[in-house]
């Protein structure tokens, strides 16, 4: 549906997007994740024709038009404060001068779908951030866009709202079959709702693939570390670990001269007074406990959901999964 080919963008000689290449499939939900300042919003604005690239091409199956628009939903929602929710949603149809009957039918359908019927006569300032976001997306969908572009849709939401919102966005995108590109720094929600995910760091798209491949088979250590905490140890130190049965065959195929990387949550620990590891630090880290374990002259981090271990306890680490960097 959409092909981004060798796209670059310069601001005052600063290269903020560097030779970007990817394709977007029909009815796909694609997310681009990356840290603040990586160039995510700039990329989205270029795709939406709000900005012009410095070089490269955007090839489309159909050109954007009044009948086939690309609609961008901004992170501040950009609702009309002087209009009711009903009028905000219907705005695109009003500008297209559709019949009153059609406008009412489509608006009422979206009010029901987005659970906003009781708020139809309210104004944006009377709604929660989550409700305002639903209005913004409903306003975009009412004109049946060929492409929906979401700029940091979770940025203004409380943490408790994010999962419900992600679920609703995923359900809505599939129901309406709208090709969607989202940019966000919130990787958990991106992984949850996306068909594919791209990682944009320092203006370069370093990997794009299915979420499970991005997470477990990152293209390099930079990609792996962006997605979460990583331990990297010399191969020789694996002799101090036990291995899950499914990992044993993989370990036997590894290059013994290379370092091995694994995520904090890919290790479990068992108390043992003769264990090779020693707990040197214990911290509450959100919903998990973060343990720092010393094994000889290296220190590794481990996340566990619950444990009664304390500093000084001896442990045996068991490795369940390693990061297989893609060649």
Name the descriptors.
327 residues; alpha/beta; Rossmann fold; OB fold (Dihydrolipoamide Acetyltransferase, E2P); 2 domains; six-stranded mixed β-sheet; 32% strand
Total count of strands:
17
Q: CATH first level of the largest domain: which class?
A: Alpha Beta
- Runs in which pLDDT lies below 50 for 5 or more consecutive residues are none
Distance, first to last CA: 28 Å
Estimated share of beta-strand residues: 25-35%
User: Main beta sheet: strand number and arrangement?
Assistant: 6 strands, mixed
Radius of gyration: 24 Å
Query: How do the strands of the widest beta sheet line up side by side?
Result: 5-6-7-3-8-9
Quickly give the CATH architecture of the largest domain: 3-Layer(aba) Sandwich
Number of helical regions:
9
How many domain modules? 2
Shape: elongated
| CATH superfamily annotation of the largest domain | P-loop containing nucleotide triphosphate hydrolases
Structural class: alpha/beta
Written as H for each helix and E for each strand, in order along the chain, the element string is EEEHEEHHHEHEHEEHHEEHEEEEEE
| CATH topology (level 3) name of the largest domain | Rossmann fold
Description:
- It is a single chain.
- This protein is α/β, with parallel strands linked by helices.
- It has helices at residues 40-47, 85-95, 100-113, 129-141, 159-176, 187-193, 211-216, 221-227, 245-252, and strands at 2-11, 14-24, 29-33, 55-60, 70-73, 147-151, 180-184, 196-201, 204-209, 230-234, 242-243, 259-263, 267-271, 277-285, 288-295, 298-304, 314-319.
- The strands form 4 sheets. A 6-stranded mixed sheet has the order 5-6-7-3-8-9, with helices on both faces. Strands 11, 13, 14, 15, 16 and 17 form a 6-stranded mixed sheet that branches.
- The mean pLDDT is 92.
């Amino acid at each position: 549906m959409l092909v981004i080919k060798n796209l670059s963008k310069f601001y005052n000689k600063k290269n903020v997007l560097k030779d970007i290449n990817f394709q977007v499939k029909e009815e796909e939900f694609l997310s681009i994740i990356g840290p603040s300042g990586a160039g995510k919003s700039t990329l989205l604005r270029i795709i939406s024709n709000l900005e012009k690239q410095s070089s490269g091409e955007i090839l489309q199956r159909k050109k954007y038009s009044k009948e086939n628009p690309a609609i961008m939903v901004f992170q501040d929602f950009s609702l009309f404060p002087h209009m009711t929710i009903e009028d905000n949603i219907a705005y695109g149809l009003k500008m297209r001068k559709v019949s009153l009957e059609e406008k009412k039918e489509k608006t009422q359908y979206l009010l029901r779908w987005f659970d906003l019927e009781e708020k139809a006569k309210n104004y944006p300032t009377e709604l929660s951030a989550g409700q305002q976001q639903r209005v913004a997306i409903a306003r975009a969908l009412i004109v049946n866009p060929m492409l929906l572009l979401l700029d940091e849709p979770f940025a203004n939401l409380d943490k408790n709202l994010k999962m419900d919102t992600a679920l609703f966005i995923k359900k809505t995108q599939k129901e309406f079959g709208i090709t969607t590109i989202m940019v966000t720094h919130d990787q958990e929600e991106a992984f949850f709702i996306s068909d594919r995910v791209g990682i944009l760091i320092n203006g370069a798209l370093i990997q794009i693939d299915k979420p499970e491949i991005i997470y477990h088979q990152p293209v390099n250590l930079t990609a792996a570390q962006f997605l979460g905490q990583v331990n990297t140890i010399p191969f020789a130190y694996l002799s101090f670990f036990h291995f899950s049965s499914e990992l044993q065959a993989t370990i036997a195929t590894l290059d013994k001269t290379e370092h091995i990387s694994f995520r904090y949550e890919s290790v479990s620990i068992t108390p043992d007074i003769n264990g090779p590891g020693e707990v040197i630090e214990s911290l509450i880290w959100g919903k998990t406990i973060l343990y720092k374990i010393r094994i000889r002259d290296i220190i590794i981090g481990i996340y566990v959901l619950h444990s009664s271990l304390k500093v000084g306890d001896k442990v045996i680490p068991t490795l369940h999964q390693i990061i297989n960097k893609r060649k």
